[in-house]
Amino acid sequence: MTASDDVTVNIRRGVAVSPEVPRSRAPSIRDVARLAGVSHQTVSRVLNEHPSIRDETRDRVLRAMDTLNYVPNRAARALVTSRSRTIGVLARTVGEYGPTSSITAAQNEARDRGFLVTTTNIASSDPDAIVGGIRHLLDQHVEGIIVTASQVRVFDVLAGMGIGVPYVGLQSAESDPRAVDPAQFEGGRAATQHLIDLGHTEILHLAGPHDWIEADARMRGYLSAIVDADLRTHPPILGDWTADFGFRAGRELLRMRDFTAVFAANDHMAIGLIHACRDAGVDVPRDISVVGFDDIPLAAHVWPPLTTIHQDFEAIGRRAVSLLLDGGAAEPSALTVDTHLVARSSSGPVDPRFR
C-alpha cells in the first residue's frame, strides 16, 4: 500500500477505514461501501436482507456501518423494498395515562421487532377529522394501524375507506375480531359485583361517552351484575371521562341521595365524584362507596385511596403490535388482557341506615 492509496487499514476492526467523513454531512451508503470494500449495490442488498449475500460480506458491511454510525435512510429504503417498516397509531386523546401507556408499550414492542411507530391524533369524532387522520398515516406508507380511538364511528370510517393495510383496535373483541380485548365487560361486572357483595342494593353507574366501545362494554358489565342480583336498575349517566364531569355529576346526584354506591367508568370521573362528596360533607365510603376503572397511578394516592379495576396497559399495547404483525394468527386467549379488582378504602359495607 502506498501513501497515495486512499485507505488505511484498521487491524482491530478488520475493515478498511477511509478518510473521515466530513462533519458537514452524515455518512452515506457509498461511504459504507468504500469502507467495506464492496459496491454500493452490495450494501443495498445487505440492507434489504437479500438472500444472495454471503455471511462474510454481510458481516463486513455491518461492521462498516457500525464504524461510521451509519443510519439507513428509511424513506429511500421503502421506495426500494415497498416496505416502510412503520406502524401507525390513530389516537383520540393525547396525554391520558391509559392510552399513552399503551402507545409507549406499542412503540417498544415495535422497536424490538425492527419497526417504528408514528402517531396521529384526531381532535374530534367528526368523520372528516377521522378520514384526515387516517390519510395522514397512509401518506407515511404505514404497514398497519393500531386504533386507540376506540369509537364505533372510527371503525365505521376505516371499514368504508378500504385502506388496504391491516388494523387492530384496543377495545372489546366482541365488537371486532381484530382487537385486543382488555376484558372491559368482565371488569365492569367485577366492579359492580364488589359493591353488591358489600351489601349495596342502590348502585349508580357513571358511564363513558356514547359511541365509545369500552364505555359500552363496561356499562354492559354493570347491567349484567345488577340484573343477575335482581336489583333495581338505575339508568346509566353518560359522562365524558373527565374529573370535572364526575364533580358536576356528583353535586347533582347528592341532592337526591337515593343511592349508596357508584361505579364510575374510569378513575378520573370517580375522583371528581369523591371531590363532590367531600365538598358536600358526605363521607366516602361510610355514606357512599365509589369504585373506578383503569387503576391510574393517582388512584392509590387520592383520599380515600380509590378502589378500581386494574388494566395492564403495557400488555395491551404490546399485544396490539403482535396481533398486527402476526396477521391475526395468535390464539384468541393471547388477545385478551385480564382485568382485576384492586380494593382500597373508597368502598366499604353499606351503612345499616340504608339497609
Q: Can you tell me about this structure?
A:
This protein is an alpha/beta fold. It has twelve helices and 13 strands. The protein has helices at residues 29-36, 40-47, 55-68, 74-81, 97-112, 127-139, 152-161, 184-197, 213-228, 243-253, 267-279, 313-325; strands at residues 8-10, 15-17, 86-91, 116-121, 144-147, 167-170, 179-180, 203-207, 237-238, 261-264, 289-291, 308-310, 340-342. It has a five-stranded parallel sheet with strand order 4-3-5-6-7, with helices on both faces. Strand 1 (8-10) and strand 2 form a beta hairpin. Helix 1 (29-36) packs across helix 3 (55-68), helix 6 (127-139) packs across helix 7 (152-161) and helix 8 (184-197) packs parallel to helix 9 (213-228). The longest helix is centred in the first third of the chain and has 16 residues, at 97-112. It is elongated and about 85 Å long. The model is unreliable at 1-19 (pLDDT under 50).
